[in-house]
Design goal:
With 159 residues, the chain is of the alpha+beta class. The protein is built from two helices and ten strands, in the order βββββαβαββββ. The chain has a single domain (4-158), classed as 60s Ribosomal Protein L30, Chain: A (2-Layer Sandwich), CATH 3.30.1330.200. The longest helix is centred in the C-terminal third of the chain and has 16 residues, at 106-121. Belongs to the CheD family.
Length: 159
């Protein structure tokens, strides 16, 4: 029987088949799903901000795209994943409010920072559903790596 593992905001979790790892309410936040298809190990991070270096006294690595992705990769390798097999899928990074300052671009900046860190770590980004102006709830199926994206009033997307 599959267990549903919930990932909170500024949080990350790793699980194996047949479990599902999910996070709710991605607005400007980005959900980063990593998957090793050989051992059917999945990981999901719910990052809120692009860059940990701009904040002092930060102990929550999962809160930021740069440190959150590194932490997720570290956890997955510790559970037997091979970095060279990891595949990434991302969702979120929406522009939830019409504001003209930099805060209005936080979703876009989160997506940019996520892509930069994945590239730096040599992890292939194979699918994404980012931007626009609506929230998303995502589920990573650890059995097959399917990444479900659910949004109010929209059909379910499977990446």
């Amino acid at each position: 029987m599959a267990e549903v593992i919930k990932v909170g905001m500024a949080d990350l979790k790793v699980s194996t088949s047949p479990n599902i790892v999910t996070t709710l309410g991605l607005g400007s936040c980005v959900g980063i799903a990593l998957y090793d298809p050989v051992i059917k190990l999945g990981g999901l991070a719910h990052v809120m901000l692009p860059d940990s270096t701009k904040i002092k006294n930060n102990s929550n690595k999962a809160k930021f795209a740069d440190t959150g992705i590194q932490e997720l990769v570290k956890l997955m390798i510790a559970k037997g994943a091979s970095k060279s097999r990891l595949q990434a899928k991302i969702a979120g990074g929406a522009k939830m409010f019409e504001v003209s300052n930099d805060l209005g671009r936080i979703g876009e900046r989160n997506v940019e920072a996520t892509k930069i860190m994945l590239k730096k770590l040599g992890i292939r980004l194979i699918a994404q559903d980012t931007g626009l102006n609506y929230g998303r709830t995502v589920e990573l199926n650890c059995e097959n790596g399917e990444f479900y994206i659910k949004s109010v009033g929209k059909p379910i997307k499977i990446l």
